């Protein structure tokens, strides 16, 4: 279920900004890797900084992509066990327990991500001398965005449990 049409304006704007960053990051990764491979093969040299920039972009697009998937309700789930073994009345409570576990996991990833990023901020990368903490900051930033989306999704699912089950397809979701 794509939750984005139901978001308030600040969450819709955040989702749009993340989507733009993902497109920009993905295109940049492809362009950098292609250009560097072309230069290495045709001219015999490579752009030393391209590896560092590509690593930064890959990490940031990975964690922002997780947040974008959370906004779309697109994370993988296996529902066969719940549908076949859990009574109908208990499914809403099981979903709530799972959502609370996800909240705890996101909060711990934010907490430890901030710790790792702050402890490594003084270290510099080899070529560009960027703070290594900037690389590790991708996890708490991406997980904080995912947490914001998940909190809204959790409240929305709890308020309208039957409506979401009937409309749980991505057929009409905007890319």
From TrEMBL:
Molecular functions per Gene Ontology: transmembrane transporter activity
Function statement: Part of the tripartite ATP-independent periplasmic (TRAP) transport system.
Subunit structure: The complex comprises the extracytoplasmic solute receptor protein and the two transmembrane proteins.
Keyword set, alphabetical order: Cell inner membrane, Cell membrane, Membrane, Transmembrane, Transmembrane helix, Transport
PANTHER family, per database record: 2,3-DIKETO-L-GULONATE TRAP TRANSPORTER SMALL PERMEASE PROTEIN YIAM
Name recorded for this polypeptide: TRAP transporter small permease protein
Segments passing through the bilayer: 12-35, 47-71, 92-114, 134-155
Localization of this protein: Cell inner membrane
Domain Tripartite ATP-independent periplasmic transporters DctQ component, first and last residues per copy: 29-159
Cellular component GO terms, alphabetical: plasma membrane
Annotated membrane topology: Multi-pass membrane protein
Protein's organism: Algicella marina
Family indicated by similarity: Belongs to the TRAP transporter small permease family.
Major localisation: membrane
Biological process according to GO: C4-dicarboxylate transport
